[in-house]
Amino acid sequence: MASSSVQQLKMKNIWVMCLVAACGGLLFGYDWVVIGGAKPFYEAYFNISDPVLIGWAMSSALVGCIAGAVISGTLSDRYGRKPSLLLSALLFTISALGTAMASTFDHFIWFRILGGIGIGIASALSPVYIAEISPSEQRGRFVAVNQLTIVIGVLAAQIVNLLLAEPVASGSTVAEIATSWNGQTGWRYMFVAQLVPSVTFLVLMFFMPESPRWLIKAGRDEQARATLLKIGDEAYAGETVTAIQQSMGQETGKVPFSALFAPDVRPIMVIGIVLAIFQQWCGINVIFNYAQEIFASAGFDINDTLKSIVATGLINLIFTILALPLVDKLGRRKLMLLGSAGLCVIYALMSVAYATGALGLPVLILVLVAISIYAVTLAPVTWVLLSEIFPNRIRGVAMSVATFALWVACFALTYSFPLLNAKLGAAGSFLLYGIICLIGFMFIFKRVPETKGVSLEELEKHLTRS
């Protein structure tokens, strides 16, 4: 949008809209992590010892995530971004209450899957909603706020787990844990604490306007103009409505899936899907899989593990905050290149450390550096790019496909990691992810454009011409 309108933007309103929508990210982060702290206690309560059931309890939400990502595009294009986000908030609320009150393992699983559906919808649509209401000059910062709230949600879950879990005596049996406060009640409070942000999100989202770009796509131009007048002045609203109408052309209503394979759209879809998969396969999940072992090798005892994990959450938060101004100052492309190259180097060093047995403090430092690099580059910027690059007319469905790819990649990583670790060992696993980061660097260098400071409509013209 023209810079002449920048001084007429209503920044307070924009911040409120973005922060409310970003509650979806906060709930995504909390729901994703809270199960880790509750794990030893609900396993004891439900008397789970079969590795298959243990893995199913930890990963069942992923099934919901994939389902939520699949339906998010259809829901958001047919009914709008706002109703879809309201549905995700409702699912988070039901899941939090249901999981906390579960009396059987089957009930526990079903409510975890329900929460996963909420994650899938929110992870796709919170950044889309924010991108579609944000002025181009600050769009990167506002969309990155969604990643910040994810990190805040992760840290909140880690802190809640730490505060609620009573110390476990060394050598405690499963039966002793099952009859303890942790085993009977504590793990339930970890899940029920999610009711506070989920109900807040549900209530506040009722007062948020619909995305102006979806409204114009639905043929409701006057409502779109009314929303844009909450963001800027008459000039801003008029210019934006005209630009969106031109980008939509004659296409309104439901978008056929075949539109994603049109010649001018196909290269953009490839970029979005590859970036989504790369964010998961860049190796950061390997870091978290190795966290407990790494802290143990650095001299931490069992009772310090939760505190150590909170420390990684704090570092993640600090560097995500640092990322907010950088997304619009340095640009998306440069940060993605720095992140993929930086992680490649870190993983190479970690591979050497494991191969030579130089564990303890050196590996711990490398872990913290890797988390810092990821938090300031790939974590927030991937979501920014995904929310920007797709054309207006297909953004909901396209984001659904990209998010589906992200969660499938996460699911594949979760299940393949033990096999990779058994075959390659720690040194080989980190080397493999270093190679993946190198390939990601080359793809970004060749295919990913810079998008900072460009309106969504101007960006669409550029990408569909490429």
Describe the fold and architecture.
There is one protein chain. The protein is an all-alpha fold and 466 residues long. The chain has a single domain, classed as MFS general substrate transporter like domains (Growth Hormone, Chain: A), CATH 1.20.1250. It has helices at 11-21, 23-45, 51-79, 81-101, 105-133, 139-164, 174-179, 181-192, 195-205, 212-217, 221-231, 234-248, 266-281, 284-289, 291-297, 305-329, 332-356, 361-376, 378-389, 395-447, 456-465. Helix 17 runs antiparallel to helix 19. The radius of gyration is 22 Å and the shape is globular. The model is unreliable at 1-7 (pLDDT under 50).
Describe what is shown at a glance.
The chain has helices at 11-21, 23-45, 51-79, 81-101, 105-133, 139-164, 174-179, 181-192, 195-205, 212-217, 221-231, 234-248, 266-281, 284-289, 291-297, 305-329, 332-356, 361-376, 378-389, 395-447, 456-465. It has 466 residues and is mostly helical. It has one domain (10-465): Up-down Bundle (Growth Hormone, Chain: A), CATH 1.20.1250.20.
Terminal CA distance reads 21 Å
The count of helical stretches stands at: 21
Indicate the proportion of strand residues: under 5%
Number of strands: 0
The ordered H/E elements are: HHHHHHHHHHHHHHHHHHHHH
Task: Name the overall outline.
Answer: globular
Helical content class: over 70%
Poorly predicted spans: 1-7
What is the CA-based Rg, rounded?
A: 22 Å
- Return the domain count: 1
Highest-level CATH class: Mainly Alpha
Mean pLDDT, to the nearest integer, reads: 86
The main sheet comes to: none
| CATH-assigned fold name | Growth Hormone, Chain: A
Q: Which class of secondary structure composition applies to the elements?
A: mainly alpha
CATH superfamily: MFS general substrate transporter like domains
Give the name of the CATH architecture: Up-down Bundle
